[in-house]
Amino acid sequence: SYELTQPPSVSVSPGQTASFTCSGDKLVRKFVSWYQQKPGQSPVLVIYQHSKRPSGIPERFSGSTSGNTATLTISGTQAIDEADYYCQAWDSSIYVVFGGGTKLTVL
Amino acid sequence: QLLLQESGPGLVKPSETLSLTCTVSGGSISNTAYFWGWIRQPPGKGLEWVGSIFYSATTYYNPSLESRVTLSVDTSKNQFSLRLSSVTAADTAVYYCARRGGFCSGGSCSFHFDSWGQGTLVTVST
């Protein structure tokens, strides 16, 4: 079945750019979404269809996909962005698949 | 504002059936633009999609759970439900209900979960 692979952790200093990768076979042909989950809270959609931001999501969140890798970027990272980030896509073998998640630490 | 609220027992015995209901308010579950889904998260672990249902009762299930999962919908109550049979400790998780938007085109689909419930912890234990 289809799998999405994410690194377990990312660390950045406040004000820097945080990048999260999500790898999967031919991922560019699938529409990738990204979710932010803070401790004890439900996930929140921050990017869908590779690069679209839902209403209310700050412009510092952006997404892109090329080849087998999708990237979520947070520009000017703030302490409030500290959370787990999950990618998600569709595949005909499993219908909906999530990556394992990446924990963002803002130092 | 769309709100989703999970309800059901927080403790289920091994080999029994887990049953949860999601009540939707602020929007109609019969809206043809959306599916409705369940996602679970074992303590300290990542997200796992369980299944999705349309208001017409069309369903899609995670292949790894398909033999034990049943989703249903009650449009008169604006609710949808999850039943997971023969549970084990591995089914202990926070269960979220969510609204799924998106579309399919040209052999690929774009699905995303844009509204989530607060989640409910279900523990499988004697």
Fold and architecture overview:
The complex is a heterodimer of chains A (107) and B (126). Chain A is 0% helix and 41% strand. The mean pLDDT of chain A is 96. In chain A, a hairpin with a 2-residue loop joins strand 5 and strand 6 (69-74). Chain A is globular. In chain A, strands 1, 3, 4, 7, 8 and 9 form a six-stranded mixed beta sheet that branches. By secondary structure, chain A is mostly beta strands. With 126 residues, chain B is mainly β. The model of chain B has no long low-confidence stretch (mean pLDDT 96).
Q: Strand-and-helix sequence of chain B, N→C? A: EEEEEEEEEEE
SS elements, strand count of chain B: 11
Runs of chain A in which pLDDT lies below 50 for 5 or more consecutive residues are none
Q: Give the largest interface.
A: A-B, 26 and 25 residues
Low-confidence stretches of chain B: none
Class of secondary structure makeup of chain A:
mainly beta
Largest sheet of chain A: 6 strands, mixed
Q: Give the DSSP E fraction of chain B (strand runs of 2 or more residues).
A: over 45%
The assigned structural class of chain B equals mainly beta
Q: What is the helix fraction of residues of chain B, given as a range?
A: under 10%
Q: Which percent bin holds the helix content of chain A?
A: under 10%
Shape verdict of chain A: globular
Order of H and E elements of chain A = EEEEEEEEE
Strand content of chain A: 35-45%
Mean pLDDT of chain B: 96
Please specify the SSE layout and strand pairing.
The complex is a heterodimer of chains A (107) and B (126).
Chain A: E1 9-12, E2 18-23, E3 33-37, E4 44-47, E5 61-66, E6 69-74, E7 84-89, E8 97-98, E9 102-106
Parallel strand pairs in A: 1-9
Antiparallel strand pairs in A: 2-6, 3-4, 3-7, 5-6, 7-8, 7-9
Chain B: E1 3-7, E2 11-12, E3 18-25, E4 35-41, E5 48-53, E6 59-61, E7 69-74, E8 79-84, E9 93-105, E10 108-116, E11 120-124
Parallel strand pairs in B: 2-11
Antiparallel strand pairs in B: 1-3, 3-8, 4-5, 4-9, 5-6, 7-8, 9-10, 9-11
